[in-house]
Design goal:
single chain, alpha+beta, 6-stranded antiparallel β-sheet, 19% strand
Length: 253
């Protein structure tokens, strides 16, 4: 069994400034967005009755947020989003079960936050200690420009009050699942980001998930080895509003 297939895929699909993975879209060959079985017997489902609270309401209202206000994020709000991402809900037989599912209960995804504008929190890079429910300051300082540049020069990463950056400790999953491990790692990251998006909506906040980033630049901000603990996903988070007037000190390009 070749355990390097997943690692090879990650390396082959890294974005770099000299090379973006993917090609030009041929709109004439775009696949259909929806699949149906026209000849099948159809059963019409009842409408969903939504109230103004609860998870179904949050699902209905969730949208990708790309314009943020100048009002800072409260530390309690950031704490709630982190709990939605990785809050421990039960402990049993050595496992610490969390708000998001993980294949085999292995939880390979690590949680980092770049605090751009959070009350009571110095600007900088933080790692989330899941069991201790604490933020560990990895690097203090204004990282709005570096994270925006790493996020494929997307200014929303500088405008948002916080940016979640998720990495994966690959060996946590690979030691059990071998060459299938990458499927589970990426699914885990998706579960987590979905939780954060719904929690933000419920709190009156917003997020925008980012999968397009320069892999090595993002890893460099965090100080992680992209072959051992690559960045797999990002998400901006903050308060809805018009585009913030405070911009990074220099142009992104």
């Amino acid at each position: 069994m070749n355990d390097d297939l997943g690692q090879g895929y990650l390396r082959a699909t890294r974005h770099g400034r000299a090379h973006l993975v993917g090609g030009r879209m041929d709109w004439a060959r775009q696949p259909d967005w929806f699949k149906t079985y026209p000849d099948a017997v159809r059963v019409k489902l009842p409408d969903l009755a939504l109230d103004d609270s609860g998870v179904f309401d949050a699902m209905a209202r969730r949208r990708s947020l790309r314009a943020y206000s100048s009002e800072p994020l409260a530390l309690g709000e950031l704490s709630a989003l982190l709990w939605a991402a990785a809050g421990v809900t039960a402990r049993q037989d050595g496992f610490a079960f969390r708000t998001a599912p993980s294949a085999g209960g292995l939880y390979p995804v690590e949680h980092y936050v770049i605090a751009n504008d959070v009350e009571g929190l110095e600007q900088g890079l933080y790692h989330y200690d899941v069991l201790g429910r604490a933020l560990e300051c990895v690097h203090a300082g204004d990282l709005r420009l570096p994270i925006a540049r790493a996020a494929l020069d997307q200014r929303i990463a500088a405008d948002a009050q916080a940016v979640f950056v998720w990495t994966a400790v690959l060996e946590r999953s690979r030691w059990k699942y071998g060459e299938r491990f990458l499927r589970y790692v990426l699914l885990d990251a998706g579960h987590i980001a979905g939780n954060v998006a719904l929690a933000a909506t419920a709190l009156g906040l917003g997020t925008c998930q980012i999968a397009a980033f320069f892999d090595e630049e993002a890893a460099g901000i965090l100080g992680v080895d992209p072959d051992v603990e690559p960045v797999v996903y990002m998400s901006t988070a903050g308060r809805p509003g018009e585009t913030r007037s405070t911009q990074p000190p220099v142009a992104l390009r």
